[in-house]
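--- STAGE predict ---
source: upstream dedup step, 1 unique chain passed
mode: sequence only
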Amino acid sequence: MSKIVICGGGPIGLCAAMMLGRDGHRVTVLEADPADHPETPIGGWNSWNRPGVAQFRQPHSLHSRFRMISDVEMPGLTDGLLRAGCVWVDNLDCESLPPTITDRAPRPGDEAMRCVAGRRPVIEWVVAALAQNAPNVTIRRAAKVQSLITGASAISGVPHVAGVSTTSGERIVADLVVDAMGRRSPARRMDHRRGWPEPNRGGAGLQLRLLYAIFLKLPATSQDGTYPYADGAVLHFDAAW
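--- STAGE serialize ---
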């Protein structure tokens, strides 16, 4: 049984923790943001403060490959998402196919392409609630990773990470450290300060335009009575290639 530290308590970090815990490893998740998930999914939207996630209010789609893996490795996750208010998205149904595609006959395996979509607070709430009761998983919030602990290299010339240090001064030794702190992860700066080589990074240019607007909570009614009541924020999202 290995001792594993996962840096980052978002959906990816928590899902990785659940899968590793199911395999018998002892997993500790360190999340910098202090607030735990609220009691209800709607509380995730109304009151969950996640300053470390800039896109926390935006809609997210969990692509079909993620769903197929999670159905096997994390039973109950898809059902939990749907109960919390997420929806099925089927881009191969007749309503979603563009009019230029005239052959709309279903093909074997089309159902595997369905995915689940919802607001990030709801998705993360479901994942966090499931991870909280997962075997061999400990979630520590308000625990921000500051630096990496090094150990003797198993391969000459290759740095070996043996744990992490937090901003509170705690040193946590681990057999494996997983970076799940997102695209802006500070791990690269930690590597650079130690003089380690820059990790290989790849990417591809996409012609993607992202447009979104956030409208904050409206008053119950306007002075002339024309505003509808809206309990919570409304977000419009559009993405186009």
